Amino acid sequence: MITVHINDKTISVAPGTSILQAANQLGTTIPTMCYLQGLPHNTSCMICVVEDKNSGKLLPSCSAQVEEGMCIETDNARVREFRQDTLDLLLSEHIGDCQAPCQRVCPAFMNIPLMIRQIQQKDWTAAIRTVKKDIALPAVLGRICPAPCENSCNRRHHDEAVSICLLKRIVADIDLQMVEPFKPVCAADSGHRVAIVGAGPAGLSAAYYLAQCGHRCTLFDRHEHPGGNLRYAISDDRLAKSVLDAEIGKIIALGIELKMQQELGRQFQLDDLRSEFDAVVLTTGDIDTAYYRDTQLQHTSRGLKIDRQTLVTALSGVFAGGSLVSPSQMAVRAVGHGRTIA
């Protein structure tokens, strides 16, 4: 028998028991959507996540099996926030038609089935257009993304998941090698100017999509080169700088102005940007509580407080995304935030 602790209650269960089943035996209710007792689990909706306090991981309780000594919490602040984000993602832009589970759990909500069909047809131009509709840095993410979409792939129950992340990388790499790589059509100059503070994945993504709307964007960053943690926290063997530079170059080519070695709170202040620009996007990474406390921005225990639908902060015209609003190691989530802000 395996002994586990769930919400400070101890239970011994047989090997192979799922966390959800163990919780049910204790009389603890965990919300589910795609789970139905007696049928194989799909690990599709991710509503049933719980936190293993020993490892710090969030686990889908319908499929994750108990392990000796696990200390599970089923309803803490982190779990509730993840479930809320997941539910928002499931419901966003849903028009009532069925969608593939891989697309539903992708933090950027990319149309994965359409990309796969276009690859099958060897229509690389259409495929990169589909990918970049939602993901501004596909060659980068194709190398570092933990691929949550593959965990929900229905094919996994037959043999193994489709290598979605690798396919995305192939599409992006082929495009980068083209004589004339894909360049999105940008609307005419809107007359609006946007300051983006932080040239990491969220900031670069916001600039990419805002430029397509005709807005003039200026990227500020404290580092010498753009990329944020993609450049300064990931080793070259995982992400070659040549790939990162190539994709960033495609974004900057849309007319983005770079102002490097400019740090918020040192070379300029938030009020300066609000006076000079029509909108401000904050994507500076981990929150500097001391600075933001003096800006009238509200924050939670995890980061700046925002409207989850629009990512607007308590200050009019100021938006925020990435790790600044919710700590995460997934660059794809930050890229998705940039798209939402735009």
Question: Can you offer a commentary on this structure?
Answer:
The structure is a single chain. By secondary structure, this protein is α/β, with parallel strands linked by helices. The protein has three domains: 2-88, Ubiquitin-like (UB roll), CATH 3.10.20; 97-176, Fumarate Reductase Iron-sulfur Protein, Chain B, domain 2 (Orthogonal Bundle), CATH 1.10.1060; 193-341, FAD/NAD(P)-binding domain. The protein contains 14 helices and ten strands. The protein has helices spanning 19-25, 77-91, 101-105, 112-120, 124-132, 138-144, 148-151, 164-176, 201-212, 229-232, 241-252, 270-276, 289-292, 331-341, and strands spanning 2-6, 9-13, 49-52, 57-60, 71-73, 193-197, 216-221, 257-260, 279-282, 318-320. The strands form two sheets. It has a five-stranded mixed β-sheet with strand order 2-1-5-3-4, sandwiched between helices. A five-stranded parallel β-sheet has the order 8-7-6-9-10, with helices on both faces. Strand 1 (2-6) and strand 2 form a beta hairpin. The mean pLDDT is 89.
Helix and strand topology:
Blueprint: E1 2-6, E2 9-13, H1 19-25, E3 49-52, E4 57-60, E5 71-73, H2 77-91, H3 101-105, H4 112-120, H5 124-132, H6 138-144, H7 148-151, H8 164-176, E6 193-197, H9 201-212, E7 216-221, H10 229-232, H11 241-252, E8 257-260, H12 270-276, E9 279-282, H13 289-292, E10 318-320, H14 331-341
Parallel strand pairs: 1-5, 6-7, 6-9, 7-8, 9-10
Antiparallel strand pairs: 1-2, 3-4, 3-5
